[in-house]
Specification:
The complex is a heterodimer of chains A (273) and B (166).
Chain A: H1 2-10, H2 12-31, H3 33-85, E1 102-112, E2 118-123, E3 136-139, E4 142-150, E5 155-162, E6 167-171, E7 177-182, E8 189-193, E9 206-209, E10 221-231, E11 236-243, E12 252-258, H4 261-272
Antiparallel strand pairs in A: 1-2, 1-12, 2-5, 3-4, 3-12, 4-5, 6-7, 6-9, 7-8, 8-11, 9-10, 10-11
Chain B: H1 2-22, H2 38-43, H3 50-68, H4 73-93, H5 109-132, H6 138-165
Classes of the chains: A alpha+beta (273), B mainly alpha (166).
Chain lengths: 273, 166
Amino acid sequence: MQRILNVFVKYRNSILYLFLLGFSLIFLKANSNFHQLKLEKISLFFSSSLYSFSNSINRYFRLEKENQRLLKENEVLKSIQIRSNTLFLYTEGCNNKTNFPFDVQRVNIIKNSFQSQYNYIIIDKGAASGIKREMGVISAKGIIGLVQAVTDNYASVISILNQDMKINVRFKNRTTFGSLIWKGKNPKKFSIEDVVSTSSIKKGDTIVTGGMSSYFPYGIPLGVVTNLENNIQNGYYKIDAELFENPAELYKAYVIENSDFKEINSLMQNIKQ
Amino acid sequence: MNSQILKMMGSFVLLILAQVLLFNQINIFGSVNPMLYLLFLVMYPFDQNQTFYIFIGFLLGFFIDFISQTGGAHTIASLSVSYLRPIIMKYSYGLTSERPKSILTDPRKTNNFVFLLIFISVHHLIYFSIAYFSADAFLLIIKNSLLTMIFSLILILLISSLYRVK
């Protein structure tokens, strides 16, 4: 206590000065509108920079939660988006469930390989979450693959970086169909086959999913045409394409379920028999 | 002692009235008003209690602001300058030299002048910075403080010489 008093006595002039300065600042603020405005500006500057600093720290600690929230939102938006892509196929409206059979579920990719010619992905949801065989897996800007095997909590996915995979694609705003096949080296470089050379395609055309398979709905954007060669001998185009997103760098994905899958499949079985 | 206190109180009141009624209305070159009231802070004896002196500096500025209805620039400037007076003294009279009793009686004329110059310029700079209160008005602040400083300096020198005759 004595020490505190000593400090007060020692610095009494500075303390008095600061006290009176504070008082005169209040006096200044009360008396002059101009100064009031200016002082409020200064205090706003200080408080806002302080708050933005603490806010940035707080935000950092909330990132994980925020991320989860955004992913949930994405899940909803994604399903709306793929619904809207197929509006013209199901003209009755996108809210009607029977007209649009696709459903979206969010998953994390826990293992992703791209070195081999036949790549597989493991995702962290399985039969317990309703994942079944032959469901499509898509990402924010493209497709990832097809569910191949399912355990209770995990599922393996055939990546599109697999030379056995052929994906039915269509050129945006055109009627031409083709098959997307991985070339086997660069994870973004694909080629498109089975496109008849009579169809009109340009370099830079956007490729979307075709909607012919029951795995993926129509209209998920995949990539662009980078190179185009007309092969006169066999009557097919030789097309190089590049994906929007590198499938080897993903760690979040969406599994889409076609609830009419069985129905469509049984029809196919009938045809084969 | 008693008569000296009375004298100080008298000059306190007189200087405030003179400043508010006379020198704030002069407007040389349209806006320059010499600040005579600093004379009180200058001639206040150096050997008195510094804490009380700070308070007096505050009161002086406060009354001038209060009567002339200005914001608080006089208060802040005179308060700050009275807080800084020992430091200014150190620079103008030297660290080791004998502390002068009062600027009116000290024989070191050059040091007195330097002290006065620093004192007034610090006060004016603070005053105009508060009055304009904006970084954009930097040149305006400098210009106004320099101009006002010249007139305040002349006025204070003149009137302090009158005091000395007494």
